[in-house]
Amino acid sequence: MSKRDSRVGTAVCAAVLFGALFLLCRQFPLTGDDWFREALGASIHSPADLLRIVAARWATVNGRVLGNILAYTAGSRPLLRELMRALFLLALAELLARTAQLRGWRGLLLCTAAVLALPQAMFCQIYPWAAGFFNYVPPVVLLLASLVLAGPVLDGRPMEESPQRGAALFLLGFGQQLFVENNTLYALCASMALLVWYWLERRRCAPALLAFFLGCALGAALLFASPSYRSIGQTGGAYQSSLGGGLAGLLASARVNLPPVLQYLILDCPVLYWGLTALALLLWLKNRRGLPDHLLAAVLALSCLVLAWGGLRPAVTAAVWGLALTLALWRWVPERPARARALFLWLGAPVAAAPLLFVNPIGPRCLFLSYVLMLAVAGVLVRALEPEQLNGWLSGLVPAALAAAVLCFFLSVYQPFHQVEELRTQALNRALASRASAVSLPAYDHGGWLWDADSAFKMEQYYYRKTPGDLTITFVPGAQWEG
After folding, report:
1. pLDDT per residue over 123-157, tens digit each?
2. Would strands 359-360 and 240-241 be described as parallel, antiparallel, or unpaired?
3. Among residues 189, 196, 97, 78, which one has the least CA distance to residue 141?
4. By the 8 A CB rule, do 69 and 54 touch?
């Protein structure tokens, strides 16, 4: 296939995927505090209104400037909200494919399936919940775009310097810092690591990487300059930090938070850790060496089985599995560029998760960046196995079938919720038109696919934000609801 045909095929594939992703996003109902952002979005009529509200939130609630801008802009604008979500999802899949060097439409399809096939608890807090989406997905998109531009460092090549590349890396570094805090700290560490790595390898500084680091540093400074973080560190509130307790407080918080972090990142993700183990063992079979490699393969396989069984100490088992996979990447990935890329991404996952040991509360959504970095490692391993040597129809059929299956599955899950949301909207409109003081709505029978699904208080705040409580909302099981 010529390069032109490949580009045309990728463009057609991207267009079809965008339509499918937009259709999926249209099925996601409003949940939890999305109602607050709907009310806030309805009050925004100009860029000046938006900036005034974001500045007020920066001074009192959090420093997530760009996350708030996106979430508030999407409020009460359903078409814009779903277009934005579909575009970010498509960009996430495309940039993940580029980061893993899975080129063409096959890589795009494979990565689309991968980014959607999250563990259920993580999926429901990232994609259907609009507030979660706009705070957790865009910074990962910006980070992956940065890694694509900084790709020569991972490949052991000189940076291709230009004013445009330097400006792009600066803006990407600055922008990705204005969302969630653990992502901010990871990007700061990653930008510094790339800068130092290049200097040690080339004995000279790369202006583009320096621009990336400066952008990350300035963005982090703006985020953490928010007065809200001082109150979080001192008195707590909706979020609490253990920084004020000294070393003893940090250690106590880490002991409490380590089990859920491991649960959200590894133990609840059998598809991911089984997949990484299988890919590593395939590389071992392809590049068999001596007794140390056979022992390493046995430890990797056994620790994966124990993780799945769950009968021993999960923290110890996860540590053994993680160390074994690290050594496997070092020994079995044959080419230096792929090995360096895989190790950089793999070691970045715990770095991105580490700040979560010292804050409360945390949820599966907080591990999204770490999960995507591990997906990128899996993509690098797929590339290292050289699957393009398979028959063309087979190598294309598998990604297409996976992407179609994943999209159809989630459409079948969320389309009924969309129908219930339409029934709710009709019932609310009738109640408002008749000036009713109370209304009952059908509850979502969501089976864990929605987060904070039925929140009467938050819906009341939206429909009567000036005088909350004028309309009392209750939820009844769908089978008992009478419209």
Report:
1. 999 999 999 999 999 999 999 999 999 999 999 89
2. antiparallel
3. 97
4. yes
